[in-house]
Amino acid sequence: MLDEKHIIHQEGHIAKAVFQGGMIVLIAHIQVYIHNVYLYKKYFSINTLKYITGIIFLFISYFLINYFTPFRFVRSEEPVTMGISIFLVYLVGLGFYYAHKNILERNLLFKSEIIERDEEIRHLKAQLNPHFLFNALNNLYGTALTDPKETPDKILELSDLLRYQIESSKKEHVTLDDEIQFIRKYLSYEQNRNPKLKIDFETDEWINRVSISPMLFMPFIENAIKYSAHTDKPFCFLSIKTDKKTLFFKMRNNFTLERRKFSGTNTGILNTKKRLELTYKNKHQLVIEDKNEIYTVELTIKL
Questions:
Q1: Tally of domains in the chain
Q2: What is the pLDDT of residue 278?
Q3: In which residue ranges of the chain is pLDDT below 70?
Q4: What pLDDT is attached to residue 271?
């Protein structure tokens, strides 16, 4: 384009110039491809003699094409200059080859990490099923001892809760609205089981426009109700709010110091922490405080 004597500046020769340019790029591409994919990948550091022999023949062919045909990648006719320029073409091509290879390897590694993360999340969700069922059976056992007539109704309520828990665990995300409806049913069940339990639950109008990982809050809620039940005036305060960009969860309950003697598996809390690290890595902040017989959980998630 800068050479005013080039045929592209001559009337009626544009098509010829474009064709020659295309052929030059094609020949260079073929030469570099043969070197990278066939010679370098197959023989370099494995069979040095074959690699050197192959690259000599490839270099000579490229040199002859440049010297005796109009499809010259290198315009200079000086043999030394032409040789150095051809060598640089191979060198630049090899650089692109390694850049492409690096991108593919990183992409493959990234996909592998995603698969491993998804498998681990599914495993953690699967652990929540028996954990939730274990707590539910404990509740039923208590109901059967204190109020046997209520047991059938409680079984129906728990079956509804378990159905949602099992179905939601198969999904990657659920709507916050569905999750809150489930939490309301669970809190209603617990409040009917323990009339002394006082529960305050706050939400806002944006909940139906947000999706989250299912059953994310339940371990905190279960623990709050479980430990608060040992007090004379059990209470739980629960707040789930969002501004569509950030989700704010807060749980506060009372407890007695004797609760430390209570033996539990801690599976739910540990799994939830792992799930948060895997699903919302660098996008969440979890603060748990245990002070003056008040247990507080504050979770912030950037959506």
A1: 2
A2: 80
A3: 1-14, 16-17, 45, 67-68, 70-83, 111-133, 135-136, 259-267
A4: 79
**How do beta strands 235-242 and 198-203 pair?**
parallel
88 exposure class (CB count in 10 Å sphere: 0-12, 13-18, 19+) = exposed
Single out the residue of 266, 174, 190, 203 nearest to residue 229, CA to CA.
190
Only one residue has tokens 């809390």, namely 269
What pLDDT score does 238 carry? 95
Tell me the C-alpha distance between 12 and 51, whole Å: 45
Q: Is 12 helix (H, G, I), strand (E, B) or coil?
A: coil
Element (H, E) at 206: none
The pLDDT value given to residue 180: 92
Q: Tell whether the torsion through CA atoms of 108, 114, 120 and 125 is positive or negative.
A: negative
135 and 91 in a common domain: no
Rg, Å, the chain Cα set: 35
Q: What SS3 string covers 54-121?
A: HHHHHHHHHHHHHHHCCCCCCCCCCHHHHHHHHHHHHHHHHHHHHHHHHHHHHHHHHHHHHHHHHHHH
Show Cβ contacts of residue 194 under 8 Å, excluding neighbours closer than 6 positions. Answer: 229, 234
Other Cβ atoms less than 10 A from the Cβ of 80: the count is 8
Domain for residue 1, yes or no? no
Range of the domain at 253: 115-302
Q: Do 197 and 298 fall within a single domain?
A: yes
Same domain, 72 and 158: no
Q: How far apart are CA 13 and CA 218, in angstroms?
A: 75
